[in-house]
């Protein structure tokens, strides 16, 4: 009887503990789901209309195509045979299951800054998503770049496994923003210029880079080409809704907002804004010589006929529907790739819970020739207080060539 009593008492204790364990596991999975939001896992690993995290669209890199793989817990085609140690190694060092070396298109150079708890939470979440059988041939690079052993040398030259180091002289909010931007958010993967080997140029951190036919803009506090004219609230609004008084998100950034930043907490968005606004000097705008008068006259006429109805004769725009072009840092970027693409291919604003209306910019490729687009962009970039170099027809032609026919 005594043994039975002890057994019953032990069972009762286990039953009392079990709900607490279950609650802890549920909390960890929910935290992990949020890490997946911060890391925008769905943005790369989910095809439009496809099963969540079962593999994404090809990423066009300067070296060839890479396809984000299936990261569901399917045992045959996903990560079902991985251990948590495999996952942690992949996130921190770029070496995954069975010692396979990853390419930095999977941004482990940023994820290495994530702390152990956040990585463990993310793993706990990924083990709970629906397993999907979907074999993906991730490595589509040409020979010899498709030999993964080459990444040993790349890592030796360009990568150091390291965690995030808080700055004790900064606030907790600033450090949280830095942790997100440098780590899970991997903002530098798109917004930092790359070396000829595809590594981040740390000296130009977040100062803008070309990406799959778009230009990911300068997001430092530079007054001419960055966020110098934006307030912290402007940054928060843009990341949460996809629109503010200065810009409407399009292209890859629209996808990042839809899948990631619009689902972040207000506290984290504010932290990101605090951090980004602290980067780089808020320098004054440096004027450039006015373009040829004939080009300005031609560009003004084209703007009046094709653009002023939405963006206003004075470039002031129409609130959240059509962004202002006057004082717009995207307009003043040194690289005009995005501007040319938006005029040629058009653009659809992002849909978010906070801003469900999605105004569109129509394609004008059928209507305007390369020289006409160059002239109107030159006019816009030198009007209403804007000051940026003239645009050539060759710049437009190179973008037109890359568009689907």
From TrEMBL:
Cofactor(s) required for function per UniProt: heme c
Free-text cofactor note: Binds 3 heme c groups covalently per subunit.
One matching Pfam family: Cytochrom_C
Cell location: Cell membrane
Binding site for heme c 3: 307, 310-311
Residues holding heme c 2: 187, 190-191
GO cellular component: plasma membrane
GO molecular function, one term: iron ion binding
InterPro entries: Cyt_c-like_dom, Cyt_c-like_dom_sf, Cyt_C_IC, Cytochrome_c-type_DH, Membr-bd_ADH_cyt_c
Protein name, entry field: Alcohol dehydrogenase
């Amino acid at each position: 009887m005594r043994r039975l009593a002890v057994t019953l008492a032990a069972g009762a204790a286990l039953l009392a503990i079990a709900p607490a364990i279950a609650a802890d596991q549920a909390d960890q999975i929910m935290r992990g789901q949020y890490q997946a939001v911060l890391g925008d896992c769905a943005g790369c690993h989910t095809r439009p209309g496809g099963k969540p995290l079962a593999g994404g669209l090809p990423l066009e890199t300067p070296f060839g195509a890479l396809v984000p793989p299936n990261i569901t817990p399917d045992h045959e085609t996903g990560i079902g045979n991985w251990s948590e140690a495999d996952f942690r190694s992949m996130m921190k060092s770029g070496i995954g299951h069975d010692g396979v070396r990853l390419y930095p298109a999977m941004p482990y150079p940023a994820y290495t800054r994530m702390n152990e708890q956040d990585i463990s939470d993310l793993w706990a979440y990924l083990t709970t998503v629906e397993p999907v059988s979907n074999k993906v041939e991730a490595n589509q690079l040409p020979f010899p770049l498709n030999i993964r052993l080459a990444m040993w040398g790349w890592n030796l030259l360009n990568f150091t496994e390291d965690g995030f180091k808080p700055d004790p002289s900064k606030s907790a909010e600033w450090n949280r923003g830095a942790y997100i931007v440098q780590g899970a958010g991997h903002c530098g993967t798109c917004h930092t210029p790359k070396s000829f080997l595809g590594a981040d140029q740390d000296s130009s951190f977040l100062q803008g880079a070309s990406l799959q036919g778009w230009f990911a803009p300068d997001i430092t506090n530079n007054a001419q080409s960055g966020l110098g004219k934006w307030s912290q609230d402007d940054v928060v609004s843009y990341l949460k809704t996809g629109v503010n008084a200065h810009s409407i998100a399009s292209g890859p950034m629209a996808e990042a907002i839809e899948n990631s930043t619009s689902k972040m907490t207000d506290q984290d968005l504010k932290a990101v804004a605090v951090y980004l606004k602290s980067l780089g000097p808020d320098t004054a705008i440096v004027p450039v010589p006015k373009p040829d008068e004939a080009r300005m006259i031609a560009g003004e006429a084209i703007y009046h006929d094709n653009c002023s109805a939405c963006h206003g004769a004075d470039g002031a725009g129409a609130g959240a529907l059509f962004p202002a072009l006057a004082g717009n840092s995207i307009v003043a970027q040194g690289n005009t790739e995005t501007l040319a693409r938006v005029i040629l291919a058009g653009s659809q604003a992002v849909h978010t819970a906070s801003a469900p209306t999605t105004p569109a910019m129509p394609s004008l490729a059928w209507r305007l020739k390369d020289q006409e687009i160059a002239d109107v962009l030159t006019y816009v970039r030198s009007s209403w207080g804007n000051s940026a170099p003239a645009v050539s027809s060759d710049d437009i032609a190179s973008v037109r060539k890359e568009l689907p026919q």
